[in-house]
Amino acid sequence: MTSETAKAAARRTISAAGAYAGTTEVGANNRGKLIDLWNTEAGAPLGSPWCASFAYHVLRQSGFKSKIAGAASCNQLVKYGREHKLIVTEPQAGDVVVFAWDHVKPEFDHVGFIELVKRTATSSTLGKTYTLQTIEGNTRALHGRDGVFRRERTVRPAAVVFIRFL
Known about the structure:
Elements: H1 3-19, H2 33-42, H3 51-61, H4 74-83, E1 87-88, E2 96-99, E3 110-123, E4 127-140, E5 146-155, E6 160-163
Antiparallel strand pairs: 1-6, 2-3, 2-6, 3-4, 4-5
């Protein structure tokens, strides 16, 4: 993929994810018209946690053509990325970031899209860190219901995987 094609794919992905910013759960936990659609597309039962289902929907909307078995699972997204050599070590806009909150891979807990790499730093105590602006589904703004929101997260490579699907 040429640099220009990759940039266009990243813009498409960020635009598609950002278009859903502000979408929130309606009624029961992990439910809502769009959330139910995303879980159905990813093969998850209604009412399931939906961050990976959202990511899969956005990827498909942005031009990703492949089917991923178990796409509603963060672990399955990482497995697919590994099997297809899509894992990258330096994040950029448009990449998927998969988080292991307890810092114990291979159990991954949450996923989002990198909208912007705001800062890369190295310290003697933490090592390398990235400060990312993300767009995530099944996350919460300061108050209110879970939904699709922009977040700022500082992460260490040991606790995340970056996947370049497009």
